[in-house]
Amino acid sequence: MQDASFLKFVGIGGPGPKDHPAATHKILYTYKKLISVFERAGFSVNLLEHCDEDGNFHFSYWNPNDGMIGRSLRFDSRNSYEKIGMASIIIDAHKPLTIKAR
Predict the structure, then answer these.
(1) Domain limits of the chain?
(2) pTM, full prediction
(3) Is 12 in a helix, a strand, or coil?
(4) Which of 2, 5, 58, 101 has CA atoms 20 to 30 A from the CA of 82?
(5) How many whole angstroms separate alpha carbon 9 and alpha carbon 25?
(6) Which of 20, 102, 86, 90 has the alpha carbon at shortest distance from 62?
């Protein structure tokens, strides 16, 4: 899924031009890095869409009524169940609320 040209296009600093949308990118997250960031902050994380290290795309059902994500398998016109044209890491993160007794 992620070839060298894609990584250069979206990677840190983008492909070169200062007006490119990726020019301000400071980090390129993998699903493992992103999960780690949230878990270190105390969140429980469910991975909903991502590509693994071998380029395989993984999908777990999520309800768009909980928050519509346009750049996703079902709602991005570049994607189909036969071919992924644009993939994002999609997670659902929850942080439990604890109200301490006085």
Answers:
(1) 29-94
(2) 0.78
(3) coil
(4) 5
(5) 10
(6) 90
What single-letter amino acid sits at 77? S
CA angle 5, 75, 45 (to 5 degrees): 80
Sign of the torsion formed by the C-alpha atoms of 32, 37, 41 and 46: negative
Spatial neighbors of 34 by CB under 8 A, at least 6 apart, are 89, 91
Number of H helices, E strands in the chain: 2, 3
Residue 43 in tokens: 């969140």
Q: Which amino acid is at 64?
A: P
In the chain, the amino acid numbered 19 is D
Phi, psi torsion values for 4, nearest 5 degrees: -60, -40
- State which amino acid sits at residue 30: T
pLDDT tens profile 32-90: 999 999 999 999 999 999 999 888 999 999 999 999 999 999 999 999 999 988 888 99
What are the DSSP E strand ranges found in the chain?
Answer: 44-51, 57-59, 90-94
